[in-house]
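Hi Y.,

Following your request, here is the sequence exactly as I used it, all 88 residues.
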Amino acid sequence: MPKSKVRKKDSPTPVTDRRTPVKAKVVGPSHPIYVIVMLGMMVIGLLWLVINYIAGDKIPFMVDLGGWNFAVGFAFMIVGLLMTMRWR
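Below is the corresponding structure, written out as tokens. Let me know if you'd prefer a different format.
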């Protein structure tokens, strides 16, 4: 039966990292106006859809938009939700 080869032992010194560390940019909290606009966009989108369901047939420009009222309402809400990703 052949003998197995002897493994080399790990070196006692740790491997040094060759990358240079990059400092993260220090960024403060979001401006309060940003939060107000973000929440406002989501509320406007919600109100648009609620008004469309309740009184959409009585408002002339909403009648003209027809099915696009859903796109408008959801667009406002999506913009507000996308703004939450930049909120600190």
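The mean pLDDT is 88.

Thanks again,
Q.
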